[in-house]
């Protein structure tokens, strides 16, 4: 049971609740109601816990999120302000989902798992904006929970990926972003810089942090290898607090393990990320779909268990190492996630 989220249930009980929500014949989710009717399955009776999802659903076909109207994927009971989110389109056309409060919940989760000493102040988001991208919305909610202000320098990750094969134009685009960031930090009180690991590697961003009042950097977006992570903490950003998150539009935020649970040096600067149980459960599996042993690398298979969205057994593009969690967050964690070999040919990470 996760003490940092408002859901006081275990994984199996929450699974039953989410299935009941999405398969209620009167207020459930159109796509899943049609799916069950086509197969003649009473899903609410067939699923007694998380383990039953494998035999009932198999692997989820993510292409339906690209091609079908987005209204079909949220329960009819979902009301109030809603937002359509899109994935970055790294391995094909973007996938779309509808969410209401999910990203506020994810911001609250991340804020509670962040190290106690991590500064809470105004944030500068140097990355994708709000709108269809979740990252800017996440930062907006995090600032709101801290009682601070978010500032934004809007990056278009799809445009950045188009420029990735042209170093001159790519550098010009990054310079354009940094010029805007310098204008913000020169006139505003900014405590936390939230941006991608790839941008934090660039000397100009290191100079931006060193020459400003920024006290912390929060990285996400692209993979970060342990050697670079060590340099981040011990050299380039040794004078500020450092934390990371791993996630995406469908998944949510897996917060880096704080030092109180597993210090960076004790994990040889590997990036250990904690999934937000029970809202999403990433499993690390082999080519046959079976869980790999602890310490082994495999493909990430994601299940989203939200009252707003239900996605069972979605095979992600990323691979990761399966590691044990620490009390009180004792479920499986993900170590050093990165683009899986099978998806590398199609994926361009670029600046994001």
Description:
By secondary structure, this protein is an alpha/beta fold. It has a single domain (11-344), classed as ANL, N-terminal domain (Rossmann fold). 33% of the residues lie in helices and 23% in strands. It contains 13 helices and 13 strands. It has helices at 11-22, 30-39, 43-46, 52-57, 64-67, 102-113, 134-146, 157-163, 167-187, 197-200, 203-210, 226-236, 341-344; strands spanning 83-86, 96-99, 123-127, 150-154, 192-196, 216-220, 241-248, 252-256, 272-274, 280-285, 297-305, 310-323, 333-339. The strands form 2 sheets. An 11-stranded mixed β-sheet has the order 4-3-5-6-7-8-9-13-12-11-10, sandwiched between helices. It has a two-stranded antiparallel ribbon with strand order 1-2. Strand 6 (216-220), helix 12 (226-236) and strand 7 form a beta-alpha-beta unit. The longest helix is centred in the middle third of the chain and has 21 residues, at 167-187. It is globular. The chain starts with 10 loop residues before the first helix and ends in an 8-residue tail after the last helix. The model is unreliable at 342-352 (pLDDT under 50).
